Amino acid sequence: MLDARSPFLAAFLAALCALVPAQASSAQSLWSKPYEPNQIALEVLQPSLDAAPGEDLSVLTGAATLWGSHLLTDRTTLVAGLPTARYASEGNGPAPRSITEHQIGNPYVGLGVSGTRVPLLVELGLRLPLAPDRPAAARAGMSADLAHREAFAPDLFSTQALLNTRWELTRIAGFRFRGGPLLTVPTQEARGTTELFVRYGVQGWYEGDTYILGAGLTGRALVTERGGAFADRTTHQATGTLILNLPLVQPGVLLRVPLNSPSSDDANLVVGLTLSVTP
User: Fold this and answer.
1) pTM for the complete prediction?
2) Domain containing 245 — which CATH number?
3) CA 130, 252, 31, 61: dihedral to nearest 10 degrees?
């Protein structure tokens, strides 16, 4: 049964509540139905983590993020995201240990401004440093979503600028591009130093009458660190998704494969469920 305190159940209930208002616009989620001006999106992700000795991981270990937005004018959109994470394990073996941790991550607030003549969207946003220090839950959240690791880091403020555009090959197929700088600032000296990253991604989409297929590559590179191998300063992951193209609600499945990461704690595979709502 679902734990009533789990981020998955909380995000699902929040998504149901979010269906009530009719005025929403495109959420920041990369893997919801593309190009829709009004949308609410939910992602629930489960990474394949290695359990510590004496632990059996629960299937509810992972992360969930609810994205929503409000259309302020014809060209400006207010975007918000609430990430949550959960780590749960049962004890086994001669030295059993059980852990259950929940974390509400650093909320995201952004403002998007779209162009009038070209398919271009510039988004400026920040994450408030509100996440509690829950090491196990933070590990689950970071491993589930490598592109948004700052969403689960405690005592960390971050701000970003993203440029979004698209290129339509035909009426049913095209590409989306996204990129821009990300600045992370620890709110306590013990948490590290200020770092500058660059995030980038490309996606290909096919939109049929009954389903949507998407595949792409996303990455982030650490700019403020010099020396060493490029792979030690970058994180890349490949993602594929299948979405049912229904009139109002678009459920989907997602598969993500990390290609490289500086952290040895990251998962080898991430599976997920997505739900986008287009009023």
Assistant:
1) 0.82
2) 2.40.160.40
3) 30
